[in-house]
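Read as amino acids, tokens; as here:

___
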Amino acid sequence: MFFNGENMTKQEIIDFWVKSSDEDFKEVEGMVASKHYSWALFIGHLVIEKLLKAFFVKTNGKDVPIPKFITCLFLQIKLICNLHRSKKISSLFLAHFR
């Protein structure tokens, strides 16, 4: 999958990150089943990062800023959630793990 956020709508960007995280999560499941736990954790952090990117785009209406570090994204999303205090905002992220 190749990402080019410049020519994509907000929903296309969100769909890209969610689809990419879903594909990676399938790999994580396979790695856990074959007891490759270190790689499962590594790819698992990418799954979370991609979901955070989708959540950031959903709540901010724009693509993820550079640098794209997971900690930076998490802190920005945490700030947004604290400001809005809405279950609706977190539904995209939480629904993925139900």
Remarks:
- The CA atoms of residues 52 and 73 lie 7 Å apart.
- Residues 10-33 form the longest helix (24 residues).
- The mean pLDDT is 76.
